[in-house]
Amino acid sequence: LLLLAIVLSVSLGSTRIDLWGAIDGSNEVSRQILVYARLPRIALAVLTGASLSLAGVAFQALLRNPLATPYTLGISSGSSFGAVLAIVGLQWLGLETFASASVPLMAFVGAGAAVGISYLIARRRGPALPTSTLLLGGVCIAFFFGAMTLFVHYVADLGQSYLMMRWMMGSLDVGEFASLGPVGPMVLLGTGLLLAISRHLNLRAGGETVALSRGVDVRRVQQLAYFGASLITAAVVGVAGPIGFVGLVVPHITRLLVGPDHRVLMPSALLAGAAFLVLCDLVGRTLIAPTEIPVGVITAMTGGPFLVWLLRRHTRGEAW
Q1: Packing angle between helix 295-315 and helix 246-258, nearest 10 degrees?
Q2: What is the pTM of this model?
Q3: What spatial distance separates the first Cα and last Cα of the chain, rounded to whole Å?
Q4: What would the pLDDT profile of 115-133 be if each residue is shown by its tens digit?
């Protein structure tokens, strides 16, 4: 599915290209579109979709909550506050030319601050982190950073507000692979950590007592899951913005297809999330071309009905 999504996304767009001519270099215009417009965008979609889906699985296992997402602990609000602060601050200082580097960096810092504060709130002595405190702390942090973001909106001018809204809708519009340089290593590190503890997350799903009786260091597993999922989420959100619902929709669909074993579920969700976001971006680029719909709008339009279905399924007493 991922390979099919990549082939479709490379081939289709608002401008028709000679794909073979772009590959062999005989058509320079098509080559420029392929190399500088579509391939970096597809690469970011793969990284972002895979990271958000994998983080969604990890947070659902960590919090033992089927509605947990990568943004549950305030990452989205923290990154948004960092980004809007950078947009306003750069324009006040007359440094707009540094926005392409400073906004992703500040978004990453804001996301890191949110998850760090949430962890400090929940940290205590004992064999495991209190998931209820972690969840409530994350919700409080999300509200706080959301209020701070609204305040920055209030004091910003019209042009700055437009840039803020565009960033918070989520976008995969990158013009070169260099923009993805810092993201790749962090995604690889976080993904490796999460896949390494997938077996322990299976035992963790049965409860802390069961996991401890099987020799699992529950607190250590929770810390690794928290750090790995937060790292990959903050890394991709810093570049792409807070793209919603991917970390909720894809893990549940994948779980229905392959079952709850995290050793299979995690790599499957990783691939499925990448394919899902590549296809969503393709729809956003082509649905009303040449006008582009932000990919965050497409994922929300897809994820909203799915969330309603998921809630209705739960009220009928069916298993998650």
Answers
A1: 50
A2: 0.88
A3: 24
A4: 889 888 877 666 667 778 8
